Amino acid sequence: MMQLRALSIDDLAQVMDLERRLFQNEAWLEQTMAAEITSAQTHYVGAFDGSLLGYAGLKVSGPSYSSDIQTIGVEPQSQGRGIGRTLMNELLAVAKRQGSEEVFLEVKAGNQSAIALYLSLGFEQIDVRKRYYQPSGEDALVMRMPISQPVVLGIESTCDETGVGIVRGNRLLANALHSSMDEHAKYGGVVPEVAARAHLEAISPTLDAALAEAGIGYQDIDAIAVANGPGLSGALMVGIGAAKGLAVALDKPLYAVNHLVGHVGVDVLERGAVEVPTIALLVSGGHTSLLLVRDLLNDTQLLGETIDDAAGEAFDKVARVLGLPYPGGPQIDKIAAEGDPRAIRFPRGLTLPKDLEKHKYNFSFSGLKTAVARHVEKLEDAGQEYSKPDVAASFREAVIDVLLTKSIWACEEFGVERLLLGGGVVANARLRQEAERRCQEAGIELRIPRFSLCTDNGAMIAALGSQLIMDGREPSGLDFGAESTLPVTTVQTA
Amino acid sequence: MLISIDTSAGTSAAIFNGEKLLSSVFFDDPFGHAENIAGAITEVLSQANVAANELENIAVGIGPAPYTGLRVGIAAAKALAGPLDVSLHGVMVLDAIAFSRAENRLLVTTDAKRGELFAAGYLGGKREFGPRVIDPASTAEFPEYEHVSEPADAEKVGRYAVWALENDIDLSEIGAIYLRSPDVTPSPGKRVSG
């Protein structure tokens, strides 16, 4: 019974033995093969029947939305048994799943059986490279196979942004947004009923705007995705109602996806591929969550979250204490630029040794907000002049310090050298600056998607739906509802 | 061919060919609007043996009604109307309930939650007043009216829409009828120290 599995460095000796027998003086060097098998950009698979019967490798280039077949080899006495085809199909599935829109390969011009296999899989010859193979001097044919990726329309309505995004595979086609933020300003925070009313008003114009931006019509849509949680129930239900109406009208599959996982997955639209493992810090007016993502669709773990206010909410509340308008984040950022972040030592919630056992990765900002209010009230009651910029800068520093300290702890504890930021608070210039400094110091790669993809948006919902489709997932049923507390482990609601 | 959708009480959909009702589906769960809306629409189309692209008109109940559920039906109707490229018509649900009745003078009320009623008065098929929010006790101020208190559904909404469209009655308003402001008041912010 033949088995297919991913190759690891432990297979190197077997692979090199077969490589040398197959390609003799054109065989790759062992260190080349080792680098190929272990690279994060490649996928090497082997066919085994006790011993290695064949192997093949694919290299995915996210930014160019393409993949290359790097090599393929089958044990001489096992050729003609379909092993090459099985290996190729596996790699083509990986290429599709990774968002590639085309796959390239080179083949010896005289290798008729391989060329026949590639033609039957859908490859076409696009070029000839003269005397490509050395030392034989044989020509290479360059072949290309297009992969059609799904066009997915995603709807986001978990909080105060009505978002409609359109993607093709991992490629962003449109990201239309309507925000009701201004309507919440007089209340000093998001009012669920105000948000839900605004979604209903905005949904049709936002759908139209997204289609216009993508330059496509409804008939071009292959699937619909919608965020069904976590979020505000009444707001979610508008998006769900609209998504279901579209799915029925178009007779297309519908995917109910997790808003928070969407924030993590959105980086595919920047890079063309998902890069994992990563720690993800999602900070907005509604969430403060620290995630460990080993596999976007299969293995996301909530390490911690806020036990009271979200970080963005703390900014709003402190802005109000300082007499600044809503939303507080940009206001505090602005005046803090003139202040001294070390002027006042505000508390760092849940960072004391006694907190670490239960709350190492949880956050608390309500005590911080109270400390700021107390500080300001005391000075005001005493009729003392005080520096608002100093208070703002010191408060901001406390929030950022806790967010980043815990994120870096997580990277270190779980051996993950990548940190992704998402959520509206990422707009905070000081947070980005400090994240860059600390990540560089700790040797961690920092990922911050462009701001329009960091805040709530429909493109991230479409992108996650697209990932599910490329991975071959079944659509959701038509009877799912709004899940205001949807756990991050539920990527898709069935 | 017209599909009517209503989520002002339960979740329902109906298909009309002219004045003829072809099919009707009703889920009475007062909280399952998001869950049931697609089922109601696909089921009513399949029962009538009508494809979505055969529809020419969509009528939707626009309230007044409890908001959260009401919006689901309107959102779905708006989203259906886009790709199908058909006209969307809004029906004030108390008008639809009144239209289903034969009485000359009617006070139609529905549950507005929080111990209040949505109400409208009708004379000879024409709305005299409303819709408005009233106290249940104040229905006593309308002794000369027949009092009708029953929920709307897609059948009533559809029947009324078919008649209204034939009689050139304007149904172009498709926004939800709320009759109440979102109940929040701007907070002045409070002191934390005593």
CATH superfamily of chain B: ATPase, nucleotide binding domain
What is the CATH class name of the largest domain in chain A?
Answer: Alpha Beta
Low-confidence stretches of chain B: none
DSSP helix fraction of chain A: 40-55%
The biggest beta sheet of chain A is recorded as: 7 strands, mixed
Give the H and E element order of chain B.
EEEHEHEHEEEEH
What's the CATH topology name of the largest domain in chain A? Nucleotidyltransferase, domain 5
Structural class of chain B: alpha/beta
CATH architecture of chain B: 2-Layer Sandwich
- Assign the CATH topology of chain B: Nucleotidyltransferase, domain 5
The gross shape of chain B turns out to be globular
Count of distinct strands of chain B: 9
Q: Give the assembly state of these chains.
A: heterodimer
Question: What labels describe this entry?
Answer:
A: 494 residues, alpha/beta, Aminopeptidase, Nucleotidyltransferase, domain 5, 3 domains, 7-stranded mixed beta sheet, 18 strands, B: alpha/beta, 5-stranded mixed beta sheet
Task: Give a structural overview.
The complex is a heterodimer of chains A (494) and B (194). With 494 residues, chain A is an alpha/beta fold. Chain A has three domains: 144 residues, Aminopeptidase (3-Layer(aba) Sandwich), CATH 3.40.630.30; 155 residues, ATPase, nucleotide binding domain (Nucleotidyltransferase, domain 5, 2-Layer Sandwich), CATH 3.30.420.40; 171 residues, Nucleotidyltransferase, domain 5. Chain A is built from 17 helices and 18 strands. In chain A, strands 1-2-3-4-5-7-6 form a seven-stranded mixed β-sheet, with helices on both faces. In chain A, strands 10-9-8-11-12-18 form a six-stranded mixed β-sheet, with helices on both faces. In chain A, helix 10 runs parallel beside helix 13 and helix 13 runs antiparallel to helix 14. Chain B is α/β, with parallel strands linked by helices. Chain B has one domain: Nucleotidyltransferase, domain 5, CATH 3.30.420. Helix content of chain B is 28%, strand content 29%. Chain B is built from four helices and nine strands. Chain B has a five-stranded mixed β-sheet, with helices on both faces. In chain B, strand 2 and strand 3 form a beta hairpin. In chain B, helix 1 packs across helix 2. The radius of gyration of chain B is 18 Å and the shape is globular. Chains A and B meet through helix 6, helix 7 and helix 13 of A and helix 1 and helix 2 of B.
